[in-house]
Amino acid sequence: MVHNTPPITPPDSPPGPARAGGNPGDVEVDYVDFQARPEFQELRHRFRRFVFPVTVAFMIWFLGYVLLAAFNHEFMARPLLGLNVGLWLGLAQFVTTFGITMWYVRFANRRLDPVTEGLRAELEDIAAGAAPNQAHETEAGTK
């Protein structure tokens, strides 16, 4: 069945800062400038400093397992604790995956999320037309 529906095109919008929210009083937010801020760059640096080395290490571990399975059948077929080495290494792949996931969640909760929440609050303040941190400082003072 062929549908002759015209493609959906986004509304025309000028390049540059985006209008936040579309509500009266909302101001234009320059996301490119916000991304250039030192706090945002530090957040990206923290994320990359964790993710890239862990990804490379896991890929080496995974490719090592695949290469052993493909080219060293005798080693992978050796019995070890009731199973063969290949099965133990395959199970270790799952354990490693879950371990890395738990490690990343802990890292993100401690090192990324607090900074992200602060940056989000500042961006929301900018979008609402307040000076960054002005609304949140007022809220903190009234609590």
Automatic annotation (TrEMBL):
Residues 1-22 are annotated as: Disordered. The chain crosses the membrane at residues 50-71, 83-105. Residues 7-17 have a biased composition (Pro residues). The keyword Transmembrane helix applies. Keywords: Membrane, Transmembrane, Transmembrane helix. Pfam families: DUF485 (PF04341). The keyword Membrane applies. InterPro entries: DUF485. This is Uncharacterized membrane protein (DUF485 family).
